[in-house]
Specification:
CATH architecture of the largest domain in chain B: 3-Layer(aba) Sandwich
Strand content of chain A: under 5%
Low-confidence stretches of chain A: none
Number of helices of chain A: 10
CATH superfamily of the largest domain in chain B: P-loop containing nucleotide triphosphate hydrolases
Number of strands of chain B: 14
CATH class of the largest domain in chain B: Alpha Beta
Oligomer: heterodimer
Low-confidence stretches of chain B: none
Number of helices of chain B: 12
Strand order of the largest sheet of chain B: 6-7-8-3-9-10
Order of helices and strands of chain B: EEEHEEHEHHHEHEHEEHEHEEHEHH
Strand content of chain B: 25-35%
Number of domains of chain B: 2
Order of helices and strands of chain A: HHHHHHHHHH
Largest sheet of chain B: 6 strands, mixed
Number of domains of chain A: 1
Radius of gyration of chain A: 18 Å
CATH topology of the largest domain in chain B: Rossmann fold
Structural class of chain A: mainly alpha
Chain lengths: ~250, ~325
Amino acid sequence: MIFDIYAIYLREMIRLTRSRVRLITTIVMPLLWLGVIGSAFNSAFRITMPVDFISFLTPGIMIMTMVFTGVISGITTVFDREFGFLKEMLVAPVKRESILIGKMMGGVTQAILQGIIIFILGLLMGVKIISSSIPIAIFGMLLTMLLVSMAFVSFGLAVASKMSSMEGFQMVMNFMIQPMIFLSGAFYPTSMLPGWLKGAVKLNPLTYGVDAMRYFFLGMNEFPIFADLSILAIFSVILIIIGGYLFRKS
Amino acid sequence: MAVKIVDLVKEFNGLKAVNGISLEIEEGELFGFLGPNGAGKTTTISILATLLKPTKGKAFVNGYDVVKEAEKVRRSIGIVFQDPSLDDQLTARENLDIHGRLYHMKKDERRKKIKEVLEMVDLIDRKDSLVKTFSGGMKRRLEIARGLMHSPKILFLDEPTLGLDPQTRRHIWDYIKKLNKEGVTILLTTHYMEEADFLANRVAIIDKGKIVAEGNPSQLKDAIGGDVVKIVCNKPKELQNLLSGIEVKNVEGTLMLNVQRAEEVIPKIFNISNKNGIEIKSITYKEPTLEDVFLHYTGRSYREEEGSEKDRIKMYMRARRR
């Protein structure tokens, strides 16, 4: 079982090193956010918040990048199905679970790598970790990244299992992922929103991911960190179950 | 017994794609499933490869039940799918290596076998090239090599030369023959008559989910009667009357004869015409093809079955992807 998972994971990792273009393009968007939007609002933001806007934005952008990467990597199973490699795996003497876990681990690794790249970019732009203990901050961020990426890789797998072509992909991105990111407080403090939208923010699981990330990174949070992590964990487990179920069924 | 199929039925939403097939394939055979698109060939092979479950009936591969012992079946077979199934972002070697890992081969074993199978399909020089730089024929060869990586007892080839040009097809045929000589049992599906005729030592002609004829290609052709002779001459009606005792059809002035041994009958026809002052303009004969066999058993011409518009588009897309 471990060997099977590793074989499938290995393939994902080799593919990752081959797709440098994809790696770079997924960094361009976050860079624009941090570099352009971040700088533009930097001074204005200082008045109401204890940190500057780039610092505030960095954890949010980390989450955004990981969500995109996670969903996309989950959806690559559609490519596998269309281009037949999935058959090669299905006809091998390996369990379906191994394929699923191997693919998930591949997606999670990629998403976390992207998160770390944004983190380093943030540090290079002068963002500082504000925490009494750097190791706890790093560990906490990694944990948050793990939970968020697991959830969204599974989300991608679930979508991919239900989708027969790449056309549905744009729909999912525009109608589900984008709103979730906009309503998560990744780009601005949610306290700035009108009341009716605040409800939507609280229902959005991603809000707690952003909040947890900001807590570990900058020491600022709207919800108790314990609540953040529990909600994220539950959300992640639910999506893994749904993703796993749909993937097996397809 | 490499393959044993008993009363196999597979329904898709009430439609019977496979409708009661029974078959036995011995070890070392090169067996061909021949039939038009949609006849149920791929469905049957998918069941044998444990990718589909039969609705009714039983199937055994290398003695293992395809439903109850799916994992053992998978371990003992190699398969080349109709559609490309390589990862073209990986190199040839990496594709084989991942395959070897999925079949639990040890590191040394993998290395040895990768070299061996790549040499066999003449791709050893390209082992570190990305598969996306390969031509259609090279990809097909690599897929065959991959199917052999884990030394399966039987290799399934689903339309191995679909969408390939004639020269490449010939090449692939040679590899398949070579493999079979080395002792690998091969079961292939094809809708190309020539392919089944050239490769298989036994074929099953499948139509609408049923086996309509089974046997050695030349025996099948012999069974439906000898050769077809066509004569064009200046006095067809007279010649027709003179050729008593042979069934002669006059098709718009061309005489068509169905005879056992054309090479012996033709000189006699010349003698008769010479004696009676009939001038023969041309005379041709051909041996029956598997096409005639298909026609004989199904009552339909094979060409009419050659796929709908949709199939053609699918084939075109497939060829483009290679």
